[in-house]
Fold each of these.
Amino acid sequence: MNDAGSKLSVFSLGGINEIGKNMYVLQYGEDMIVIDCGSSFPDENLLGVDLIIQDISYLLENQDKVRALVVTHGHEDHIGGIPYFLKQLNVPIYATRLTLGLIELKLKEHGLLRDTELNLIHPDEAIELGSIRTSFFRASHSIPDCVGIAFETPEGIVVHTGDFKFDLTPVNEEYADLHKMADIGKKGVLLLLSESTNAERPGFTQSERVVGDNIADAFRKATGKIFISTFASNVHRIQQIIDAAQMTNRHVALLGRSMVNVVSVAEELGYVHLPEGMLIDAQQVNVLEPEKVVIICTGSQGEPMAALSRLSTNTFRQVSVLPGDTVILASSPIPGNEKSVSRIVDNLFQLGATVIYGSGSASGMHVSGHAFQEELKLMLTLMKPTYFIPIHGEYRMLQLHKKLAESVGVDGKNIFILNNGDVVDIQNGVASQTRRVDAGSVFLDGLGIGDVGKVVLRDRKVLAEEGMLIIVISLSKADNRLLSAPDTISRGFVYEREAEDLYKEVNQLVVSTIKEAKPSTRYRRNDLKHAVRKSVEKLLYTRTKRRPMIIPFIIEI
Amino acid sequence: MNDAGSKLSVFSLGGINEIGKNMYVLQYGEDMIVIDCGSSFPDENLLGVDLIIQDISYLLENQDKVRALVVTHGHEDHIGGIPYFLKQLNVPIYATRLTLGLIELKLKEHGLLRDTELNLIHPDEAIELGSIRTSFFRASHSIPDCVGIAFETPEGIVVHTGDFKFDLTPVNEEYADLHKMADIGKKGVLLLLSESTNAERPGFTQSERVVGDNIADAFRKATGKIFISTFASNVHRIQQIIDAAQMTNRHVALLGRSMVNVVSVAEELGYVHLPEGMLIDAQQVNVLEPEKVVIICTGSQGEPMAALSRLSTNTFRQVSVLPGDTVILASSPIPGNEKSVSRIVDNLFQLGATVIYGSGSASGMHVSGHAFQEELKLMLTLMKPTYFIPIHGEYRMLQLHKKLAESVGVDGKNIFILNNGDVVDIQNGVASQTRRVDAGSVFLDGLGIGDVGKVVLRDRKVLAEEGMLIIVISLSKADNRLLSAPDTISRGFVYEREAEDLYKEVNQLVVSTIKEAKPSTRYRRNDLKHAVRKSVEKLLYTRTKRRPMIIPFIIEI
């Protein structure tokens, strides 16, 4: 069943142990297909980094083989890296309608739209990508138009689930296509890649419809203005908010750039239906009676520059939260965001609003878009794969997903947990994981791609926690004589005005260190800097128990 | 019922909107009593700050009136600030036995034990503090020997609950003294101060005994070594771990300085009972069979230098986590610590351990020590206060606690939500909140008290996120001539080797800026620095979209 010498390979280039910058690559023979191209946001250790994307040097080395980038859905962690990817490697993109709309929005911003080949896929049709027949199945998730992918290779069928849950009462009519999944499983799946985000959570996710019912209840009870914050891309939820607004005769205003953009794309493509005359501008909010208005806004994750955060500190120009207003956080804080979200809730309480919030589904205003354990088992049972790779998640989630797979009958020896760069090869029905390719993270900070590396980040950390001290020393070129007293300034160390005595002491120490240095040391500038740094370091630690970055600076005249 | 002119006042000096540095002050006439003196840990915005304590300048201004520091229990957020307090204001301390033991430990470290007056209080006895008769009632919490306080003043009774929950099946025999609380309530409480930590959580906390049962179950199932991590001060939980170890014939080793210290104090004072020969040193762990060992360790909050974190990265010298071992996190991440705890769990999975973890009480290995909503209502119902101040919590929790109080009959007009520095005065039975005193936070970093202020922290933030660039310019004193080419170095900005061209450009710009500056500007050093900073800032932002801190440095020869 196999071309002589050809083998099937799956590469992880992102998305392992770092939820957010998802990217997998499938190769059969001379054909490579890239699946998803996400970006992720840095955590607090990556000081000042704006965005993290994949290192795609392996793909660049093999660019003649890359046939396509296929995208499962339109979330940032699956499409956010596309502009940076295309700047390095221009390949045709395949995606469903809404996903394509959201990608277009991004390409426009980066001026890449004209030069990119965009192909619309319909979940019911199959396409040929090189030698690989590629078909799709609809999946439920927290954004419409989500698909899983089945790749038919001569070696066998590979299924990539994308992100999914099983919402059996979905808001739109796009049911997760259980029957198609069952058909694929019946044909025989060689390898399944399935997402692991909620592998820690027992049970079955609630339906998005539950949120709609609770939103409607809250709208019925509210008296003043209603603010409701959710992910802009959660189009089903936004539709349910619009429905509740219609039921309670309220107009809708949209706050936040991504909310305006995404809703406009979704409406244009028919994923959101806004009754005629319902939408108003932010400026009109204050003209209407409070009980006639709903404001849908961004910032449900506590992002400091987004609408909700600015509303909570009363720094949004056109609209204010007033006592008697209701604010609904239709979201659950992503790990790491708990404190910023709490701060916003706290500020909203101070403004006198009624705030409906909570983590997980505790408030009734949020359900997860990712399969819980019973759903993961359902997918595994439908697909009955010979080999299994749990994807999208941190190590513990992949490991727990592995256990779930074993519990429904997948042989533990046939389950591979990959790190980024790991490869699984399958030839003649036998899978092995023996090789690695280049893979990693690239940090974006401002305009630069990849110019902020580990050295820069380590420096930022020291600067952040201890501050720094610069000592400028002017030496005569001729005889290494000190031309003037050393000069010391600091930033982020101690408040300068209060530290005059300490700096005097530092300067005296620098003078004596230079005087006492052997002529050979004085001659070698780096040795002299080292000697100054060491002696000042010791003094400062004794006096303050701190270790600022010390930068001796020699001027030669 | 009141001395002519005397009034009763309650001051909040810490603990409002910043869980952790709790401190309240009660004053009647010429007598002031300080209740608790906690410290708190900085969040990610306070770069490099080690500890936060109260600004007690108001107490220093009134030091002749301060009669005592009364401490409700031995947690850091109630005793952590005591050494720094005593260095500024030496007053007698009153606390129960275990609390006093933990305070002594702290005072020893700071060399303050000899000069401090420590007074043991027994919950069943009353004491006179100046004119104020002070009695106590036992409360349940996650540390033994916890008390609430009743202050009898001529104006009426003021009750401060300390931290509490109602554990009706406690691990030791020290029941929360419901009858005494009821008696105090019957006498009539003028003002109640009650903690609000869990005002967001519906229902009633589970008993600590539940944790003991689950620990015993896990110990019965475990085959390899058992590691269990919890707060050192949770003495009841440590006793339950010891009991489970005894039941399964395991020895116990303690890892982590605070674990060793606290257990030793608790054992000495009779709060922990260790069977003869059960305790072993860390070095002995590897000598014994894995199934004969339990390791109790610190670091359940993900603290990077604590035992659990080091075990998870296999950098603990004497002991290793091996495949087949069980690791139990008997704790719930405090908001803000979720990610560090997740990282540790992930690492432990990678080591092949069975990890029992979860947030809240999901794992069965943790229950909260703070009253949930029904318990808060029970306290309010028992005390029936005329006036109420919700304490210990962020604003939203205080506000929710206020609503709970209203729901059990406290008049909303009689409830005060204080910020730090706010004062409630009661005279002739009438309460008002009209004045403020100095209050705030003091940051400790290394040895300094308060020398890291807002300027330093703002600098650290810029340095952390954007890095910095130093430009050294040598000018002749005589004629403001440039003596040599400017020199530029950076830290935390871009990787220097890759930025040579950019720095050349910067240096050229500096030269031209200086040349083009008006003579008057060149003469005034600060103006010249300003001009250089502005022009370089603009260049760097255009080239990199970043705004590092720019420090022009002028050397005069």
Amino acid sequence: MPSFDVLTVLPGLFSGFLTEGVIGRAIKSGKVSVKIHNLRDFTTDKHRVVDDVPYGGGPGMVLKPEPIFRAFDHICEERGKKPHVILTEPWGETFTQEKAVELSKKENILIICGRYEGVDERVKAIVDEEISIGNYVLTGGELPGMVIMDAVIRLMPGVLGCRDSLEADSFSDRGLMGYPNYTRPAEYRGMKVPKVLLSGHHKKIELWRKEKSIERTYLKNSELIKKLLKEKRFSKEEERIVREV
Amino acid sequence: MPSFDVLTVLPGLFSGFLTEGVIGRAIKSGKVSVKIHNLRDFTTDKHRVVDDVPYGGGPGMVLKPEPIFRAFDHICEERGKKPHVILTEPWGETFTQEKAVELSKKENILIICGRYEGVDERVKAIVDEEISIGNYVLTGGELPGMVIMDAVIRLMPGVLGCRDSLEADSFSDRGLMGYPNYTRPAEYRGMKVPKVLLSGHHKKIELWRKEKSIERTYLKNSELIKKLLKEKRFSKEEERIVREV
């Protein structure tokens, strides 16, 4: 069974994540194992101190190396092998869907949740990659840890039921945006569902969805459309739509 | 007091977020109010159904409009005014630190947690902006909701204590990466702290940190360095370092 170990100073933050929704069900049904480790359990002093002031001065506190190395040794022993180690870091490589696919093939992953102030640089001796989830500052690396696990676990075999999944289609494969969705009622507070979707005419519906998807993508990211056009990744019909928008 | 309302089908996912860490403390001490609303509480049928099949066919389920509009009406009435409404959406605008700063000045924010399959398009009539936290697919819009709240709440007055905060310095202001941090012990498992940091020589320490910050940034994002150089946003000393790396 694939496994995640998470090393954090705030294990309580993960309580909802471990029991609710798609991920909660995946853990409950044994599709994946997720174990949260409290960094403080790997300290040896009475006050269970995990951070200290930076050498050379400056603001903020730095996570000490010893508890992290001790936790790493413990997890390696418990799992019987060295996991793939990720450090969540505001200046790490930006997380993408391609990275999620790559990580979904790893057997054991350890996520060390960083803090914005920093982790003692020597910890990077055991880190395989530093990952950031985007260009914004968070209070800690715990939410990024959950985001990474969520994106990776949903790709694991048997995790997504058909109700949850959107089949990889030719739109999303090429990075095109989704088309507008509507469900019942056909009219609500004066707002109607586009007639074509009620027509039952599959060819027309498909064409309308293609138009909307290409139009939306063009408005948000015209570069992508130009790139796909250059690489001849549109069908003839799609190319005609592109020329129109 | 600034407030967040969150509309979700998985309220339990937020349990850790509301009580732990910096955000938990901010809520407890009355710096911000966060209220999680269960979308199912705004259904009127016995089975409390919140989604339905899409008009026109296709995979996945779509969040129905009525419970969302009913919840919106309820929240507007409860808060006495219309909140700023965000829909977490894989195809929305990408969240950034600038957006976090902008949102930290709003008084009332409502986050509607989308689902990957989609939300009935008519809901967008009440939505002010659609936000994505990055180019990856998640099981739902709840983690993005927490990421947005985390980034925004930490910027609110009185939320960050001096232990948590990293003063905005001239590095991060310009998008430069942080320098390596070290704390005690000076030697651990054969790995030593760079001598300069132990020297007590403040000028030298400052110079070393500048070098490391510029070097790291150059390796990850040389375009940014070129841009800052062009815009003359380096000091003379920094420019010399840039020429060297």
